[in-house]
Design goal:
Blueprint: H1 2-22, E1 28-35, E2 40-46, E3 52-59, H2 69-83, H3 92-96, E4 102-106, E5 114-122, E6 129-139, E7 150-155, E8 158-163, E9 170-176, H4 177-183, H5 187-201, E10 213-216, E11 228-237, E12 240-241, E13 246-253, E14 256-264
Antiparallel strand pairs: 1-2, 2-4, 3-5, 5-6, 7-8, 8-10, 9-11, 11-12, 11-13, 13-14
């Protein structure tokens, strides 16, 4: 019994110690690792692993861009508190804040734009700022807009893609339509996310095409007879989408692809 009581007392002391450390001001370090046209990767490293922190990425067109860092953070915390009403089964801190060193990859930024990355520490009980927020600036690269279009045809198990310019790179991906619209909301968003993942892991070069290409479904073992799929094709350079998307919806039957709809236009 004494042993159990000792363990309980020790646990309570450790818990109290951790709670105290959560309130201590910590040094926050933020480093921007890579910047492309619409994506940024950065690392945040607090010296106190128990501290709760959040980040804000704000662009030069935002009306509060030149406000003080504290004002920007306080406004963001208020927005978080309002948004938290839509979450169930998770704490406010788990939804919006982090502890320990983390690397973040953020997309869908504006190209050729000035940005600020702001990192701030929060009191986990009162949601007030602890210490001074820090800021680092970066500028996204310009993304070229290419006049690139695609002709689509099918025969048997093959969809043929013919670009309007054989000198420009492009990418394509396909997936079940229901999955795309359930998980990503739109076809171009799906392709953008997949391209970002391939770039993150360093094998995007294997998915670039130049000139005519074919989507050969004969040897794909995950194709289901009678299922609708969506194929998305878009110009792409350095991991950035550079043209309007071509979106192809089709139903797959072994040896017979039924093209339902071919549209040119971005779906976000």
């Amino acid at each position: 019994m004494k042993r159990i009581l000792s363990i309980l007392v020790l646990s309570l002391l450790l818990f109290a110690g951790c709670q105290k450390e959560e309130l201590l001001p910590t040094e926050l370090k933020a480093k921007v690792e890579t910047v492309t046209g619409t994506r940024v990767r950065f690392t945040v490293a607090p010296t106190n692993p128990h501290a709760y922190y959040g980040y804000i990425i704000i662009n030069a067109n935002d009306g509060s861009y030149d406000n003080s860092l504290a004002e920007i953070c306080k406004e963001e915390i208020e927005l978080m508190e309002d948004a938290y009403a839509n979450f169930e089964g998770a704490s406010f801190l788990d939804v919006f804040f982090y502890r320990g060193s983390r690397q973040f990859s953020i997309g869908t930024l504006y190209d050729d734009m000035d940005y600020k990355l702001i990192v701030f520490q929060i009191n986990p009980k009162t949601h007030e700022l602890i210490g001074e927020p820090i800021s680092t600036s970066f500028h996204t690269k310009p993304v070229p807009a290419r006049d690139l279009h695609f002709d689509i045809s099918s025969e048997g198990d093959v969809i043929s893609i013919t670009p309007s310019d054989d000198n420009l790179r492009y990418v394509w991906q396909y997936e079940e339509s229901d999955m795309i619209y359930y998980q990503y909301g739109a076809a171009t968003s799906y392709l953008y996310s997949v391209v970002g993942m391939y770039q993150e892991y360093g094998f995007l070069d294997y998915y670039y095409y130049i000139g005519p290409s074919e989507v050969d479904l004969l040897h794909e073992n995950n194709m289901e007879d009678g299922t609708q799929y969506t194929l998305v094709i878009c110009g792409c350079e350095e991991g950035e989408l550079t043209s309007v998307s071509t979106i192809v919806k089709f139903i797959y039957h072994p040896g017979n692809i039924v093209l339902l709809e071919i549209e040119e236009g971005d779906e976000w």
